[in-house]
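Table S2 (continued). Query chain:
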Amino acid sequence: MRSSNPVFSRRGFSRDNGYAGFNTAPQAGGAAVGTQGNPYAQPQAGNPYAQNPYAQQDLQHGAPPQAPVTTGRMTMDDVVLRTGTTLGVLVVTAALAWALLPIDDANISRSYGIGIGAALIGMVLAFVQSFKRKASPALIVSYAAFEGVFLGVLSNIVDNRIADGAAMQAVIGTMAVFAGVLVAYKAGWIRVNRRFVGFVMAAALGFILLMMVNLLFAVFGGGDGLGFRSGPLGVIFGVVGILLGACFLALDFKQVEDGIAYGAPREEAWLAAFGLTLTLVWIYMEFLRIIAILNSND
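Corresponding output:
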């Protein structure tokens, strides 16, 4: 399935590593809306087992592919470990930024400037990884570190100047969405098929285009542009963003499941961790935005 993360573009599992179930798909996005424009990979049309040297299919009974016993293939433990490492680095750098970059009246401009600079560096690193032919753990971990600095500063500002406890509420909301989508996916309540992917991609494209138009109006007209990111409309679009993030999580889970079943190389677990981190960051920022809007005095 082609998956698309609304935060930054990135690669899916690659053919060069012997896993033909996914291919590369760049995606639009930017720091202003928070993307890794989150996009992934797509299984081959027709019969994927005929093209994938790692897919094991019972031709007589039509059984689903089984992961090969060959060593060096991606497992769920690999995905969990890499994802835990990436998120751990992000959380640690966010905590350090929160503690070490003050947001009092005398220092808030400097701290916010550092946060924005870190976000831009993180976005560049994410795009570099997106166009590399192989996963680079150093790039992925570095992205998480710089993104953590940005989230730490931003969360501190919202938590202390707009809504007390906003960061913890956003974390809890993000964890709830992750758990809910995981349960729904494993229970079969969410079926990731071509129709689902097409709907999500169309919705994501429309969402991103609207945010870009709003940003242009804000830059040249001042204020919040068309008002899509503040007030009642901001809350509505924030909820839509969270729902899109939940859909992207389902696509992430499908990607991981298929990668393991088709025998993707172990290093591809870093790409799965990268994608999950991007999606979770997107959802967290949408929660934080909604909380800030609801508690704003403007």
